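Cross-posted from the bioinformatics board.
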Amino acid sequence: MSAKDRYHRIVRRAIESDGWEITHDPYPLQAGGYDLEIDLGAEKIIAAEREGQKIAVEIKSFLGPSKISEFYGALGQFITYRAALKIQDSDRTLYLAVPNTLYEKFFINLFIQDLIKQNQVDLITYDIEQEKIDRWQP
Amino acid sequence: MSAKDRYHRIVRRAIESDGWEITHDPYPLQAGGYDLEIDLGAEKIIAAEREGQKIAVEIKSFLGPSKISEFYGALGQFITYRAALKIQDSDRTLYLAVPNTLYEKFFINLFIQDLIKQNQVDLITYDIEQEKIDRWQP
């Protein structure tokens, strides 16, 4: 199994453990004549808070050698998908899922945190070993 | 010469022809502990309008197979560089330089134009054959 597929399965299971039903794998998105895909679509089924909330999750592994280059791509993709989602399915919130180890090494940087806030990027961090969601930000 | 180097030289000459002096090649940028580089720094020397204006130009060739994937990276890089430039050299305006042929094929798409406007991406388009700047947007 490719690393990409492995991370996909880990995040899928982690989101399910968190009380969400996976409704799309992948979630299809049309915009500007392009057929795009967000990795997962999910809906909250357990617990009163967030009940019925719909999300789409783009999964990033950040396994390449340049974290900052991968960040450029992830940020641009997030902004593009969010704009497309706003037109197609405005009740659905987009999240970028990144490994918690990468979050602690890279996203914790103040300059990167400022970029995340300025561009209102919603993040999920996941624990690869435990297959659990660690953090929803904000 | 690599295609990347060839496009770099074309844009450098095109900007010089437009009355700018190249002051940095590349323009060094520090942010969040990262040493980044924008392809060119330039200052307007000819003509009353824009005189003394300072710009930084990130050159994109969009030669890869997936234009939308390259767009994600270019958009994320532009937003990151702009945030860093605002801290380091707030009088300098960042431009993304793209081939005019690519602009007519890809950037003209209404969804992409909306993203460019929403994210206030300043664009230069360049003519590869003529080695001239075609368009400043906005």
